[in-house]
């Protein structure tokens, strides 16, 4: 997300060399210095050879420069290893998957969270469990619910980069204009339904002018209603659990009441999310799901926006503290040419200080407990960001399905939702079909 440009400018000024300084050294003196240095190293029994490892990171622009700054800092901190960093967008993972299949991967790679367990369980990634244990890195070093993220059946295949945390956002000015208490977001599904109705407006021809709320991330409500997509103990899918069916029944009623086709037409006119034309900033939607990146986005694109963020509403008997989390991951391919060196760099990169600095640059949250209080991150925390952090620390944290068929499961959930939206299946039927399909796919991995 938006980096700390002031901090970056200071670093750039501090590291700038005076123009023409290199020209002061005559070529002959360069050769003499090199000869003396080589002789002293050999006399001390040190090897001149330096191992070079390749590191693919997924950030471009100023964010990529922030990562490259860390790479350069690591290189300057020791002489045994040189990390060569490259910007390789993850995209759909095609280039990364091709490199793994071809047996010539980079030493350290950045991947999406949904890629970690399938690739690791399939043998393409190194199991970092013994290495992390040797290094003394444990679950206690990480925030609640994060250590299990990227792990499956006792094997940990990667470490999260920085965290994106979702919360329930509401536009306080829209609330006030509608005669509602701007400091009273919905706490229950019933309150959400009531507020959605009051805040949704249409014109004389029935065209939508403002949408009170749109449930966009389906898995949030599965968990808010008390369900899960898989059992974390047995690792079996639970897609058609009664709580999940109840969540889909609520979604179905919502889509029917507000007409999903009319909603889609209204959404077609929305502006880009990372712009002043974001529909939430313009009051076209009063309440939404949104992550901590909105702290940076609103500061840049809507500095006068009066908004709040809190936990997601839940029904009686559900979970009132659901906290969805997503991340990218750093992984070491199983065929990495320099696994030991890659692990050393990974441990340095994910240490508290580096974790805090990089998260602050991206307006994300560091995954490590001990990074939160470090000035590099703590000094950037705004009241809104603190709310996201509090939800992460005290809420029911859930992450994308950590299964070999995790992506397939998510796709099946989306297909079930589409069937409910178009009326071709009831919630129970759609989720039952998804459950059977995922179980059948999972059999391939047993």
Q: Please tally the β strands and state the result.
A: 12
The number of helical segments is: 18
Proportion of residues in β-strands: 5-15%
Give the helix/strand class. Answer: alpha/beta
Helix fraction bin: 40-55%
The main sheet comes to: 8 strands, mixed
Rg (CA only): 25 Å
Terminal residue distance = 40 Å
H and E string = HHEHEHEHHEEEHHEEHHHEHEEHHHHEHH
Q: What is the molecular shape?
A: globular
Outline the low-pLDDT stretches. 1-47
Mean pLDDT metric: 90
Question: What would you say this structure looks like, in words?
Answer:
This protein has 446 residues and is α/β, with parallel strands linked by helices. It contains 18 helices and 12 strands. The strands form 3 sheets. Strands 1, 2, 3, 6, 9, 10, 11 and 12 form an 8-stranded mixed β-sheet that branches. Strands 4-5 form a two-stranded antiparallel ribbon. Helix 3 runs antiparallel to helix 14, helix 9 crosses helix 10 and helix 17 runs antiparallel to helix 18. The longest helix is centred in the first third of the chain and has 17 residues. The N terminus is likely disordered.
């Amino acid at each position: 997300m938006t980096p700390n440009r002031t901090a970056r400018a200071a670093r750039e000024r501090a590291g700038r060399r005076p123009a023409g300084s290199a020209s002061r050294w005559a070529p002959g003196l360069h050769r003499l210095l090199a000869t003396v240095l080589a002789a002293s190293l050999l006399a001390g029994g040190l090897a001149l050879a330096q191992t070079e490892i390749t590191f693919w990171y997924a950030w471009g622009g100023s964010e990529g420069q922030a990562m490259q700054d860390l790479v350069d800092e690591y290189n300057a901190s020791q002489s045994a290893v040189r990390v060569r960093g490259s910007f390789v967008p993850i995209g759909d993972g095609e280039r990364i998957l091709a490199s793994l299949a071809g047996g010539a991967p980079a030493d350290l790679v950045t991947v999406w969270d949904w890629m970690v367990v399938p690739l690791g369980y399939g043998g393409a990634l190194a199991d970092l469990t013994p290495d992390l244990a040797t290094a003394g890195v444990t679950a206690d070093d990480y925030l609640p619910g994060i250590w299990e993220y990227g792990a499956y059946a006792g094997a940990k295949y990667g470490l999260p980069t920085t965290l994106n945390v979702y919360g329930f956002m509401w536009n306080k000015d829209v609330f006030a204009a509608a005669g509602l208490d701007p400091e009273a977001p919905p706490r229950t599904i019933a309150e959400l339904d009531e507020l959605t109705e009051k805040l949704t407006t249409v014109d004389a021809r029935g065209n939508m002018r403002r949408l009170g709320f749109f449930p966009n991330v389906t898995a949030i409500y599965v968990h808010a209603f008390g369900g899960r997509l898989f059992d974390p103990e047995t690792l079996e899918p639970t897609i058609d659990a009664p709580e999940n069916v109840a969540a889909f029944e609520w979604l179905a009623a919502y889509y029917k009441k507000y007409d999903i086709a009319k909603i889609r037409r209204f959404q077609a006119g929305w502006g880009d999310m990372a712009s002043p034309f974001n529909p939430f900033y313009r009051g076209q939607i009063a309440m939404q799901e949104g992550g901590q990146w909105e702290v940076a986005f609103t500061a840049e694109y809507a500095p006068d926006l009066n908004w709040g963020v809190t936990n997601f509403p839940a029904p009686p008997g559900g979970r009132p503290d659901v906290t969805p989390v997503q991340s990218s991951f750093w992984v070491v391919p199983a065929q990495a040419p320099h696994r030991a060196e890659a692990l050393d760099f990974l441990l340095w990169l994910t240490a508290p200080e580096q974790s805090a600095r990089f998260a602050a640059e991206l307006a994300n949250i560091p995954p490590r407990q001990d990074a939160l209080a470090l000035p590099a991150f703590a000094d950037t925390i705004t009241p809104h960001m603190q709310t996201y952090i509090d939800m992460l620390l005290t809420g029911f944290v859930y992450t994308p399905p950590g299964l070999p068929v995790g992506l397939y499961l998510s796709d099946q959930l989306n297909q079930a939702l589409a069937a409910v939206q178009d009326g071709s299946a009831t919630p129970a039927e759609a989720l039952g079909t998804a459950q059977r399909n995922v179980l059948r796919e999972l059999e391939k991995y047993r």
